[in-house]
Specification:
By secondary structure, this protein is α+β, with helices and mostly antiparallel strands. The chain is built from 12 helices and 12 strands. It starts with 19 loop residues before the first helix and ends with a helix.
């Protein structure tokens, strides 16, 4: 596998070549990605995404399909000097929060050798691709048509450079959240020393660098609670237990609101899709009854404290934290 180093990505909507919009529309209409698990078959059109459990994602069957090759080739011909000047590539790209950040060319060749089906992974087997076998974050599959040579031409609207992107379809596969609720972690003396906290500290919210984009709570942050406090919760009376859990929940939600307020200005347009579907943003949007990250950001920036107060009025979240605390106690 090798990295793509010469693909020029001008963006679908602004590509300057004559006929590019028509080719893009045809490519998107004809191309699908089939993702098969032990229980389900998902058929994705261009720009679609599917969310599946990590255990199934690792061994899912993945097949790229082009329903009508002749129609696709006929749309390519007017754009280029020769059909032989075009290659196809199937590329796997890690999502933005992956520590690997890999880009792998899974298949490539002359357009004349393109088949109706390209199997990227066989159901039940783990791929040799580092990207496809990584289930800690989302990855994308891109199917692209690119110009494969430099040519001299007087036409300003035909591709001239090697690597010029003619059209592209993209599909996204991502894991379901590992935890449905944030799960606290016990914090002992060694942890406090590692974080530079005093011995009296009883909680610590450690936000990850990709808190706004992470697909799971595990990737987004670690919420530590004093180990002795967790032990106390085991034998606490119901009223005291509820009071402690409510306090911890308040600390967590207030901390997340402050983090979102501080980071919202750094969200770029190309990050928005991951941000909208991230674990933290989805949870906070649901709690405060807004539909978009922009609405959430506006509220938390105006007042993180008020936003947290509104979110904490949702009693269902307390039950989720209670369950997670019980699981933490058992570890």
């Amino acid at each position: 596998m090798s990295n793509v180093t010469q693909m020029r990505n001008e963006g679908v909507s602004v590509r300057p070549f004559a006929g590019s919009r028509e080719l893009q529309d045809v490519l998107e209409a004809l191309t699908t990605l089939e993702v098969r698990t032990g229980q389900e078959l998902y058929v994705l059109s261009s720009a679609d995404r599917v969310t599946i459990p990590p255990s199934e994602m690792r061994v899912a069957g993945v097949t790229l399909k082009v329903s009508d090759l002749e129609k696709l080739l006929a749309q390519v011909d007017p754009m280029v000097m020769s059909r032989e000047d075009v290659d196809f590539l199937v590329v796997a790209l890690d999502g933005p929060i992956s520590p690997l950040r890999s880009t792998e060319v899974l298949h490539h060749g002359p357009l004349s050798e393109l088949k109706n089906e390209i199997e990227l992974n066989t159901l039940g087997s783990q791929s040799n691709s580092a990207v496809l076998s990584n289930v800690n974050g989302r990855y994308s599959i891109e199917f692209a048509l690119v110009h494969n040579k430099n040519i001299e031409t007087v036409s300003a609207v035909k591709p001239r450079l090697k690597g010029a992107l003619l059209a592209k379809a993209e599909f996204t596969i991502k894991p379901t959240g590992v935890n449905d609720q944030p799960k606290p972690k016990p914090m002992g003396p060694e942890d406090k020393a590692r974080f530079g906290l005093p011995a009296q500290a009883w909680f610590y919210l450690q936000a990850g660098p990709y808190l706004l984009e992470a697909a799971t709570f595990d990737e987004a942050f670690d919420f530590y609670i004093d180990k002795e406090l967790l032990e106390t919760l085991k034998v606490a009376k119901p009223a005291a237990k509820t009071a402690i859990e409510t306090t911890l929940l308040t600390v967590l939600i207030q901390g997340l609101c402050q983090e979102v307020a501080a980071r919202s200005e750094d969200v770029l347009d190309e990050m928005l899709e991951d941000v909208e579907f991230s674990a933290v943003v989805r949870m906070l949007k649901n709690l405060i009854d807004v539909k978009t990250f922009a609405e959430l950001a506006e509220q938390v920036k105006e007042s993180p404290t008020k936003s947290a107060t509104l979110m904490l009025a949702k009693k269902t979240l307390l039950g989720g934290l209670l369950k997670s605390l019980e699981e933490a106690n058992d570890e």
